[in-house]
Write a sequence for this structure.
């Protein structure tokens, strides 16, 4: 559905993403998750992302515009939790699994170096990173030089940088950048002969779960007052957005750059482990201090299944 210029202007004024807002792009409807094979050589991507380029990468919300909204329920299927095999808004000072699985995402978009956040999840191929849809594709163009830096800390990449061999998103994000389906994934290349989750471990992931539960969310906000150097988190009860989407909402002051960071159910502060059930997506400009993330329903599950089979 095309939006009028006035509606676009209203949305741009009302909504800011953990990138700033996105504009719908007309495109053919898709029956399933959409996958993009990256042509970039993994060694070239690794060489490109120097510590200086990582520090200077701008949060993606400074490069985008206004989102598409369709206030309807996301399709649901059978409740599914895929457990990982054991193997606010303040800086995360704890330890545990999350300081290895959560990381900063870097890519080139429209000739600019930009950043988001992501998380390594359990998968059959051991190589899946879950992030936001706008962190892999925006306005008809797939981002290039896409890489994941798990455990990123002030320019340090203790677990290396993992270049994507393919990136994927939901059919709804591909067709119209519908904020209810702002979910993306990357399948990363092996590094030094090892798979991602063999090195950093993996979080569980869940679909079709009950709404309005307590959750934790993590990310690398890089817009003021944050600077992208450290892992930040929020925690608390969630609610269902009653305005323009059916997303999860939480009291959280993370800013641009946190997009794509994981939301966890059943998170343990002692172990740093949880079950991922959403990602940081957007915030309303007129409602500061709140973050929203898409419900992981059937389409998010289909995306995950395609990514782990790639």
């Amino acid at each position: 559905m095309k939006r009028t210029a006035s509606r676009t202007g209203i949305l741009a004024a009302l909504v800011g993403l953990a990138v700033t807002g996105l504009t719908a792009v007309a495109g053919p409807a898709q029956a399933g998750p959409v996958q993009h094979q990256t042509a970039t050589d993994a060694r070239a991507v690794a060489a490109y992302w120097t510590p200086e380029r990582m520090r200077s990468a701008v949060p993606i919300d400074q490069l985008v515009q206004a989102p598409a909204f369709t206030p309807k329920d996301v399709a649901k299927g059978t409740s599914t939790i895929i457990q990982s095999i054991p193997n606010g808004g303040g800086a995360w000072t704890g330890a545990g699994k999350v300081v290895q699985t959560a990381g900063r995402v870097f890519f080139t978009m429209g000739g600019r170096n930009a950043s988001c956040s992501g998380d390594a999840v359990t998968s059959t191929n051991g190589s899946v990173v879950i992030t936001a849809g706008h962190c892999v594709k925006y306005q008809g163009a797939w981002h290039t030089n896409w890489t994941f830096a798990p455990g990123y800390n002030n320019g340090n990449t203790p677990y290396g940088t993992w270049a994507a061999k393919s990136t994927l998103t939901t059919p709804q994000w591909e067709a119209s950048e519908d904020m209810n389906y702002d979910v993306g994934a990357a399948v990363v290349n092996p590094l030094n002969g090892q798979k991602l989750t063999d090195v950093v471990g993996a979080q569980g992931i869940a679909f079709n779960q009950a709404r309005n539960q307590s959750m934790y969310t993590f990310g690398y906000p890089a817009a003021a007052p944050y600077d992208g150097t450290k892992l930040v988190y929020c925690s608390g009860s969630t609610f269902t957005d009653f305005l323009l989407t059916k997303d999860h909402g939480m009291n959280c002051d993370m800013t641009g750059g946190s997009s794509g960071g994981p939301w966890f159910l059943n998170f343990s502060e002692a172990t740093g482990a949880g079950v991922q059930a959403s990602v940081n997506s957007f915030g309303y400009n007129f409602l500061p201090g709140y973050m929203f993330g898409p419900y992981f329903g059937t389409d998010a599950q289909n995306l995950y299944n395609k990514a782990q089979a790639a």
